[in-house]
């Protein structure tokens, strides 16, 4: 059995797929999640895919006491992958204090326990939102960070700064922040996928729920952006490809191969697709009709962004492999499996 890895937010969308990849790579996963935007049944689905059920603790990591009790209950944790955070751009604009309280306090509590117990490695779930609306595309890791356009994005930037300063003060600790772009798709088994509680904030679950008849129509937010078809452009990456990057990053830390004790990498495909292109690709690969309407722009959304992934390709030896078509089909297969269609 490999190293024990604590995965916070491990029943969530990216977290659950990463637990699968960790266990497939021989690691032992401990999931900590408050189930505010995920379901406990995900743990059983992970067990079905991997043949091993990860340990699970329901915990509010923004509580210092609950966080400390988690570490006391699970001795022997060697590394941490920290996903747990509120993540809706739009909601963060309406509820900034909730986002700052949850996202920043949970990180500080985890770092305090890492320091207290001598747990020296962490991979942090960051985001391309730290770049704001960049002046030049694609964005590299050298692209200057801009003031975030949402409280959610700002929490990611603040958390990165906290981790950087923590590593500066603790030379024998190492952390990697993965700045990922727009994860989509589902595990090829169709046993886990993106299932937000309530109305989806992300594009693809809204697409699949509309295709399944759960939603009346898809809203495309803005068709007057300065892009070829007027809709916003993003770098959409398959969630399994993204999850594998976390395993590679953990191994890099364990094997002491990092160049500095705080590193950050872009995790994307390197290609920008518009919202309309993604919608049309879904219709093409599934053959399903998809009613949609144009809605006003959302506050906090940026116009266009995509990654230059050459550093993560070179340093991590990682590369996005799955096509957009395969990825969208996996999302639809997951939706159909979950709904019993």
TrEMBL record:
Family: Belongs to the NAD(P)-dependent epimerase/dehydratase family.
Assembly description: Homodimer.
Every NAD(P)-binding domain range: 6-327
Cofactor(s) the protein requires to work: NAD(+)
Classification via PANTHER family: UDP-GLUCOSE 4-EPIMERASE
InterPro entries per record: NAD(P)-bd_dom, NAD(P)-bd_dom_sf, UDP_G4E
Coiled coil: none
Record's keyword annotation contains NAD: yes
Protein name: UDP-glucose 4-epimerase
GO aspect biological process, one term: galactose metabolic process
Keywords: Carbohydrate metabolism, Isomerase, NAD
NAD listed as a keyword: yes
Pfam families: GDP_Man_Dehyd
Entry superkingdom: Bacteria
GO molecular function, one term: UDP-glucose 4-epimerase activity
Catalytic activity: UDP-alpha-D-glucose = UDP-alpha-D-galactose
GO cellular component labels: cytosol
Enzyme class: isomerase
Gene: galE
Pathway(s) this gene product operates in, as recorded in its UniProt entry: Carbohydrate metabolism; galactose metabolism
Enzyme Commission code(s) on record: 5.1.3.2
């Amino acid at each position: 059995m490999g190293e024990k890895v604590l995965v916070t937010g491990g029943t969530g969308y990216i977290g659950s797929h990463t637990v699968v990849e960790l266990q497939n790579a021989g690691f032992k996963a401990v999931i900590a999640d408050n189930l505010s935007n995920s379901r406990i049944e995900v743990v059983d689905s992970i067990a079905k895919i991997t043949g091993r059920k990860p340990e699970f603790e329901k915990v509010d990591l923004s509580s210092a006491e609950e966080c400390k009790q988690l570490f006391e209950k699970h001795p022997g944790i060697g590394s941490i992958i920290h996903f747990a955070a509120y993540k809706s751009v739009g909601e963060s604009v309406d509820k900034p204090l909730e986002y700052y309280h949850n996202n920043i306090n949970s990180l500080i509590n985890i770092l305090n326990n890492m320091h207290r117990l001598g747990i020296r490695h962490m991979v942090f779930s960051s985001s391309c939102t730290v770049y704001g609306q960049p002046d030049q595309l694609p964005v590299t890791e050298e692209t200057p960070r801009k003031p975030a356009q949402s409280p959610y994005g700002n929490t990611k930037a603040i958390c990165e700064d906290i981790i950087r300063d923590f590593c500066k003060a603790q030379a024998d600790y190492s952390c990697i922040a993965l700045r990922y772009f727009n994860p989509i798709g589902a595990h090829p088994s169709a046993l886990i996928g993106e299932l937000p509680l309530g109305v989806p904030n992300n594009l693809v679950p809204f697409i699949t729920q509309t295709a399944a008849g759960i939603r009346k129509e898809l809203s495309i937010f803005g068709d007057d952006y300065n892009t070829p078809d007027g809709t916003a452009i993003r770098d959409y990456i398959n969630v399994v490809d993204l999850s594998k990057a976390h395993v590679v990053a953990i191994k890099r830390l364990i094997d002491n191969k990092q160049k500095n004790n705080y590193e950050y990498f872009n995790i994307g495909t390197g290609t920008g697709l518009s919202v309309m292109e993604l919608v049309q690709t879904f219709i093409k690969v599934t053959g399903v009709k998809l009613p949609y309407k144009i809605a006003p722009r959302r506050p906090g959304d940026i116009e266009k962004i995509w990654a230059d992934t050459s550093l993560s390709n070179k340093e991590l030896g990682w590369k996005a492999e799955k096509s957009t078509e395969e990825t969208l089909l996996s999302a639809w297969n997951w939706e159909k499996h979950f709904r019993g269609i």
